[in-house]
Design goal:
- The protein has a three-stranded antiparallel sheet with strand order 1-2-3, with no helix packed on it.
- The chain is about 25% helix and about 20% strand.
- By secondary structure, it is an alpha+beta fold.
- It starts with a helix and ends with a helix.
- The protein has one domain (about 5-65): HIT family, subunit A (2-Layer Sandwich).
- It has helices at about 5-10, 55-65; strands at about 15-20, 25-30, 40.
């Protein structure tokens, strides 16, 4: 069974999309704590941010810790 995020990326489920790139999709969290809470997920199936290869992994880890 596909994960919730995979179904959103494949447009099987509706989301309020913010940004799309060739590798990532960003959309608003439906259970957000603040109005601007956005989720960024890869288009490929990856178990955790620790498994992102190369530059993509560095970007995700840096973004997850923002603001510094």
């Amino acid at each position: 069974m596909a994960s919730l995020f995979s179904r959103i990326v494949q447009k099987e489920l509706f989301s309020y999309g913010i940004l799309k790139s060739e590798k990532f999709v960003a959309f608003l969290d439906i259970r957000r704590l603040k109005a601007e809470h956005t989720l960024v997920v890869p288009k490929s199936n990856i178990m955790s941010a620790h498994f992102f290869p190369g530059k993509a992994g560095k970007r995700v880890k840096r973004s997850a810790s923002w603001p510094p």
